[in-house]
């Protein structure tokens, strides 16, 4: 088994609970065609939302992941992912 280092981009997104910082990773599809974007909320960002809303860590984390998953997609190439990520970073 080989170890793969995933390419990551960190960015802020607006959620129904407030702004959250997420890590976006490019994951090669097992079929060999294209890549999938996976996103994970940053710990500190989730804690900040918990403090502001009074909700539990798990509740906030799951809510942010659900909102991220609504916008997930499969990219044909890593470059397509980066082009999309850069577009989302611009004001």
Protein model, in words:
- It is a single chain.
- Strands 1-2-3-4 form a 4-stranded antiparallel sheet, with helices on both faces.
- Helix 1 crosses helix 2.
- The longest helix has 13 residues.
- Strand 2 and strand 3 form a beta hairpin.
- With 91 residues, it is an alpha+beta fold.
- The protein contains 3 helices and 4 strands; from the N terminus they run βββααβα.
- The protein is elongated and about 45 Å long.
Mean pLDDT: 80
Q: Uncertain segments of ≥5 residues (pLDDT<50)?
A: none
Q: Largest sheet, order of strands side by side? A: 1-2-3-4
Total strand count, please? Answer: 4
Profile the largest sheet: 4 strands, antiparallel
Oligomeric status of the shown chains? single chain
Q: Give the overall shape, derived from the CA principal axes.
A: elongated
Measured on Cα atoms, how large is the radius of gyration? 14 Å
Quote the distance from N terminus to C terminus: 41 Å
Which H/E pattern describes the elements?
A: EEEHHEH
Tally of helical runs: 3
Decide which structural class fits the backbone.
alpha+beta
Indicate the percent of residues in helices.
Answer: 25-40%
Strand portion: 25-35%
